[in-house]
Automatic annotation (TrEMBL):
Pfam (any one): HTH_1
DNA-binding keyword on record: yes
SUPFAM superfamilies listed in its UniProt record: Periplasmic binding protein-like II, Winged helix' DNA-binding domain
Protein name: DNA-binding transcriptional LysR family regulator
Taxonomic placement: Bacteria, Bacillati, Actinomycetota, Actinomycetes, Kitasatosporales
Organism expressing this protein natively: Streptomyces nymphaeiformis
Gene Ontology MF terms in the entry: DNA binding; DNA-binding transcription factor activity
Superkingdom assignment: Bacteria
GO cellular component, one term: protein-DNA complex
InterPro entries, per the entry: LysR_HTH_N, LysR_subst-bd, WH-like_DNA-bd_sf, WH_DNA-bd_sf
UniProt KW keywords: DNA-binding, Transcription, Transcription regulation
Length: 303
């Protein structure tokens, strides 16, 4: 038995609905002879008779009813496939994997996913916390579709294999303990903190940006503590162990006896961006994710 031809199955279905070969032929814009030939050929392909004489007309056999029951399920699946493909083509459905460093998960990626669940409920997203450069390796291998990163030395943001979309500038503010001499200063510059003890991130872009900013401001920071968690960093500031640069996007939970102040000018900052494989930015589902990220990013670093 060969696989049935969908066109012949549609002819059989039309005969079932119209009742006569002539009516089916008229609906399908075929000749009655062509309809009979199609149904006879389908019966030969399936190895069963599909019609039998009933007076001057033909009626469907029990085997034909079985075929039609399964054919209707096939036609339903085809229609569902067409609908999903149409939704996919408009960015309404599909699957997109997103990878970003820890700060961007709560500040950008999760809010963007929440927006997409409302506007595009058929579009599925998967999330992973991955730091560069490993996130760019995943992107290159096709194991993720969108990477969120920031401008620091060693990232692959300018790699021609990737298309880059700027999301926002993320300034760094300063966390000061209660009673600090600059707490109420009307003007605060990074250089004013040259003699302070500093708390930096253990490694990575936040550490590198902080050290580079202090160097650019004309001093080498006295880094006495290395802490990788923002809540723990603020706890150390509260205890008077030092001051710390905090990216505004991090939005750590407020702590008593700790004030986070913006600099008056020349604040350290990083450019947060999304990267996708070059050419994939034209994909409707990836474009939808990038649009959601851009929308969320505008509010993510508001003071």
């Amino acid at each position: 038995m060969t696989d049935p031809d969908l066109r012949k199955l549609r002819v059989l279905r039309e005969l079932s609905e119209r009742g006569t070969v002539s009516a089916a032929a008229q609906a399908l814009h075929l000749t009655p002879q062509a309809v009979s030939q199609q149904i006879s050929a389908l019966g030969r392909e399936l190895g069963v008779p599909l019609t039998e004489p009933s007076g001057r007309r033909l009626r469907l056999t029990g085997a034909a009813r079985i075929v039609l029951r399964h054919a209707d399920a096939v036609f339903t699946q085809i229609e569902q496939m067409r609908a999903e493909l149409a939704a996919h083509g408009s960015g309404e459905s599909g699957e997109v994997a997103v990878a970003g460093f820890s700060t961007t998960l709560s500040a950008l990626i999760l809010p963007a996913v929440a927006r997409l669940r409302e506007s595009r409920p058929l579009l599925r997203t998967s999330l992973a916390e991955v730091d560069p450069p490993e996130s760019f390796s995943l992107l290159h291998r096709g194991e993720t579709d969108v990477v969120i990163s920031a401008d620091t030395a060693g990232t692959a943001g300018e790699d021609p294999r990737f298309h880059r979309v700027a999301l926002c500038d993320d300034p760094f503010d300063i966390a000061l303990p209660e009673g600090h001499r600059l707490l109420d200063s009307p003007r605060l510059l990074l250089a004013d903190l040259a003699e302070e003890t500093w708390i930096f991130a253990t490694t990575g872009m936040c550490h590198d940006i902080g050290v580079a900013a202090c160097t650019a401001a004309g001093f080498t920071p006295q880094a006495s503590h290395a802490i990788g968690d923002w809540d723990a960093t603020l706890a150390a500031v509260r205890l008077g162990l030092g001051v710390a640069l905090v990216p505004r996007m991090a939005k750590p939970a407020p702590r008593p006896e700790v004030t986070i102040r913006a600099f008056s000018e020349q604040a350290p900052s990083r450019t947060v961006f999304a990267a996708v494989r070059e050419g994939s930015q034209a994909s409707p589902e990836i474009a939808a994710v990038l649009d959601a990220l851009r929308t969320v990013a505008r509010a993510a670093v508001a003071a």
